[in-house]
Amino acid sequence: MSDASNIALKIRGLEFGYSKEPLLEIDELQIQKGEHLAVIGPSGCGKTTFMHLVSGLIRPQVGTIEIQGCNITRLKEWEMDRFRGRSIGVVFQRLHLLSAISVLNNLLLAQRLARMTPDKKKAMKLLDRLGIAAQAHSQPAILSQGQAQRAAIARAVIHNPSLVIGDEPTSALDNASAADAIQLIKELSESVGFALLIVTHDERVRGSMDRVLDLGGQT
Amino acid sequence: MNLLQLSMANLLLSPLSTAVNILLLSLGTGSIAILLIATHLLSAALIRDAADIDLVVGAKGSPLQLVLSGLYHADIPTGNIRLSDAKTWTEHPMVESAIPLALGDSHQGFRIVGTNEDYVDIYDGQLAEGKLPSNPLEIAIGSSVSKATGFSLGATFASQHGLDGAGHAHEEDSYTVVGIFEASDTVLDRLLITTLESVWLVHGESRPNSETYDTTQTNRPHDHEDVHAHAHAHAHADAEAEASEAMLDDHDEGGHAEHQHEDQHQHEDESSSEYDGDQEKQATLHAEAQEITVLLVKYATPIAAITLPRKINDESALQAASPAYEITRLLQVIGIGIGWLQAFASILVASAVLSIFAALYASLKARRNDLAVLRCLGATRSELFMLLLYEGLILTTAGIVFGLIAAHGGIELAGIALGDAQNFPLTGFVWAPTEFLLVGGLLAAGILSSLIPSWQAFSTDVPRTLALS
User: Fold this and answer.
1) How far apart are CA B422 and CA B73, in angstroms?
2) Closest of B39, B113, B105 to residue B72, by C-alpha
3) Residue A29 CB partners (closer than 8 Å, separation 6+)
4) Burial of B364 (0-12, 13-18, 19+ CB in 10 A)
5) R_g over Cα of chain B
6) Which of B278, B303, B322 is the last residue of a domain?
7) Contacts 24+ apart (CB under 8 A), A140-147
8) Residue-wise pLDDT tens for chain B (469 aa)?
9) Which of A71, A111, B15, B144 minimizes the number of CB atoms within 10 Å of its CB?
10) What total number of domains does chain B contain?
11) What residues contact B7, with CB distance under 8 A and at least 6 apart?
12) B358 and B459 inside one domain
């Protein structure tokens, strides 16, 4: 029996489709704080759609999605934007660090958009923990793929979110870098306390998660 | 790091494009600002130097030329008029005051004006040092003249015939500087003020031993009378001064001027009464024949504006020109030219605004992923809208600021390069009220140019963009 306050994500009776035929149907799903879930399935099964639903970028036709006890399907768009900024962290497949500003400023901007006071010390401490403090003032374009991945992870967790969603975060990395990135993000999940939901094709990632949701088989 | 700083950083990602856009807008802004400032300076100088003068009366010719030469000292006079002809109008009941000016000489390009104290008063001329000229060949100089010539009190110089500095010098009659005016930002700064009589004296019209005078004085002993003759000339000039002032300044007492003239003569040289009898007759005739260049008239009643100019033009050999009318006409003519220049500058501004639009639109396309990421990080649609709007505003503001700095700086430099002898003072340290409109209009144009890209940012379809990336 799980404690309600310990639930990071709760989905009930979710249905979503781009046509009359639903693409996604999830009766019930719960993820505890600190829990790590891999979302897998064949191409076209709705993994990315699931990620967009959980991050509030699209809304389900039926069902509810609660993050940290907040039913995000009832939030207005701007409220969802703010909520997302505060409570959700996202790591993209292509990383998408803002190229116009330094790594450090990417982190400070994420804090600002989470409506927090930008904390440079905290950001530097996190970058140091991820081993890229020396690149804090570098532009993202000059980082290696591994460094950029670490910077993207740092940006996703700098504002202490309840849930971090990763969209194929290791697909562009070699084996060593992928393992390294997953290890780092899991460590951060344990220390910060966020739930981790990773959409992936990557068997390396799947094997290291606590649970697996197979959208192809709805496991 | 906030959205404004992010906008700035985005612009700096393409420094060349940003610089070109700012340069384009600066050129347009600067061009329009120069026209606005120059028009403002010209209008202000024209109004200031008009000094509430209602009418300029002078010789027949171009009325605009009469106003420009008589009031603004910016053109060649139309000719001279007889003092006696002018007197007819100074005594007219519709005339409150009339100030005579005798022009024609200059020094180092600065014009010498023979007049009376009233002329100084209409510009609130204050002496920084010395006194106003009261005796023949005394002169007070404007602040710009003082600066340009380096003259101090007691300095002497010969005037030059004509206004372009190319005429012959009146070497035999040197002026002595007796006063220096404080800067008044009016035409007075660029003038040398002397008495009417000094101008007449320099031109031989009051000189007892001048050719016209000598023809009536053939029996006059010359050798031992030189000193006497010189003194007499001065006394004579003084008497004429009083006579002319009496004629021009005081209508009621105008008839006494000749008596004063005679009295003065009696005091000066009682011992040669027989000789003076002829001389006084000649002097009186001579005073009547004296010439001035213009009369600056103020109306005693508003109705005079309708009747007096027509009356003077129809009933006399003189010409009356209204500064208000002529300057309005002049500004209309100048305005056509300025209008064309403004149209050209507006095209520059429009090009710049379009260029800003193109730059923002192109950068928007390149940064769609960034915008989607920002939404994922918690930015609202409105914040994305503002992000692009800030970029347009930053470009526009930079263009405006650099354009205004270039315009004001350019005019200031032009003012320094052209010096004090120009017909109206050029300074960049002024703000034309129309510049507010320019700045407001440009900011509005900048916002307009950013609206479409901003709206597209607002409408970014995040899932689709992320899926496509």
Assistant:
1) 10
2) B113
3) A9, A10, A11, A14, A213
4) buried
5) 33
6) B322
7) A140/A95, A140/A97, A140/A98, A140/A99, A140/A102, A140/A103, A140/A106, A141/A99, A143/A97, A143/A103, A145/A172, A145/A173, A145/A177, A146/A173, A146/A177, A146/A180, A146/A181
8) 888 999 999 999 889 999 999 999 999 999 999 989 988 888 888 888 887 899 999 999 999 999 999 999 988 999 999 988 888 888 899 999 999 999 989 999 899 999 999 999 999 999 999 999 999 999 999 999 999 999 999 999 998 887 766 667 777 789 999 999 999 889 999 999 999 999 998 877 554 443 332 322 323 333 333 333 333 333 344 444 444 444 444 433 333 333 333 343 343 444 444 444 555 555 555 555 689 999 999 999 999 999 999 999 998 989 999 999 998 888 888 877 878 888 888 888 888 888 888 888 888 888 888 999 999 999 999 999 999 999 999 999 999 999 999 999 999 999 888 876 566 678 899 999 999 999 999 999 999 999 999 999 999 888 888 877 6
9) B15
10) 2
11) B387, B388, B390, B391, B394
12) yes
Residues B373 and B241 in one domain: no
Q: What is the arrangement of strands in the sheet containing A163-167, beginning at the earlier edge strand?
A: A88-91, A163-167, A195-199, A36-40, A211-214
Enclosing domain of residue B248: 52-322
Cβ-based contacts of B376 with chain A (< 8 Å): 55, 57, 84, 90, 92
Q: What is the value of ipTM here, to two decimals?
A: 0.91
Give contacts of A115 with chain B, Cβ < 8 Å.
Answer: 378
Report which of B198, B190, B195, B193 is spatially closest to residue B108, judged by C-alpha positions.
B190
Say which of B2, B380, B463 has its CB closest to residue A52.
B463
Q: Alpha-carbon distance A36 to B292, whole Å?
A: 105
Can you name the CATH fold of A32-46+77-214? Rossmann fold (3.40.50)
The ranges assigned to domains in chain A are: 32-46+77-214
Distances (CA, A) of B310 to B267, B319, B321, B438: 44, 9, 10, 42
The single-letter DSSP state of residue B182 is P
The position carrying tokens 């027949």 is B60
Question: Which residue is closest to A86 within chain B, CA to CA?
Answer: B378
Q: Which amino acid, one-letter code, is at B374?
A: L
Tally A–B CB contacts below 8 A: 84
Tokens encoding B434: 């129309």
Chain-chain contact of A81 with B379 (C-beta, under 8 angstroms): yes
B210 and B265: one domain?
Answer: yes
The Cα B129–Cα B148 span in angstroms is 17
